[in-house]
Amino acid sequence: MLDLNAKYEILSFSVGDTKAGTKMGKMQIKNLENSSILNCVLWEETLNRTADISTRVGNIIRIITASYNEKYNNCLLNNFEVLEQAILGVDEEKREEYFNKILNAISEFKDEKLKNFVSDILIKNKEKFIVCPAAKQMHHNYIGGLVVHTYECVEMAQAVLPKVKKYLNKDEVIAAAILHDIGKIYEYDINLESGMIEYNEQFKKDWITHSQYGYTLCMSNGFLNIAKMIASHHGRADWGAMIDLGEKDLEPFYYIIHHVDDLSAKFGATSVNDVKNLN
Fold this sequence. Notes:
By secondary structure, the protein is an alpha+beta fold. The chain is 39% helix and 19% strand. It contains eleven helices and seven strands. The strands form two sheets. It has a five-stranded mixed barrel. The radius of gyration is 20 Å and the shape is elongated. 39% of the residues are buried.
């Protein structure tokens, strides 16, 4: 039985083209009471009646009219109301604070070549880096999500390193924590007015994944171990890893970025609702 008074959080929203040449929206929403997921389609007529801010990720909505399948996990959404407007992400002052914390971590590198390499990349790409999301849907999918996720990975790596320092190079680990997702500044486009995140079509034509971009960047500049940590940070080949951590006889440094990345993605400021505690 469908609860017409149920409140839903918008998890993702995108717009594409149908075979007929019209626009079609796809929205995934979560029931705040039982955490069930509902996948919604919005036809062009509905989109034309809907303001961009209404479909913002993180909005809390109530469905007014919709047609459902038998299992009530898919629907054609005709009309809804916004009960609570979501914030778009981390405010500008806080983004600057996170960025400077990352630069401070780089300033502690003993390897001057590596220090200059990593700091130059961030400074040259600062404008994109501090607004970019860290994902389209799974985690840190809001304005400033990447800078938050990156610093969370740095913090977690710094916490672990004293326990494993005899196996790992501190500068290389922190550099990999900073650069493991750097390709996302080109992989994603985010609308700063609506918070909508889309894949950059040109990036998809030029690169396989953001991991491939980061790996290539570090390999071409002679930082082989950092490149390998980036290549393995997704853990498994079927999760997008270029190096599968299930392979035998891998050196210890291969594993750490995967684990700190996974911890941040599961326990960090993963959703836009968590940002309220950051701003």
